[in-house]
Hints:
With about 110 residues, this protein is of the alpha/beta class. It is about 50% helix and about 10% strand.
Amino acid sequence: MGLEMVLNDLSLSPSAKDIYAARQRMSTFIETFVVAVSLKVERTLRTADDMNEIELAAGYKVFQWRNDSDVSREHRTYLRTIATNIHICDFARMFLSSYKRFCMEIYV
Length: 108
């Protein structure tokens, strides 16, 4: 298992001031994800919540961004292609599992 990206929902607070700023944030996110994958980071994104329901700006959620014709088609398509690799996870369980595995590796 390689390095995976985790969406830090705190990085989305506060919400963007308007839709234009939200679009720019998502463009930056997609571009960052593309670079990370090119550097051999797994093409997987872990989130604590359903990414489609994340509010980017007041009244503007990720699912609306995905269907926004004013957003780069390339970026919208890229998000759709990684959508099958977005995993909603229980961070506490993931942390404990990693910790347990780490301890086992040390003591074995």
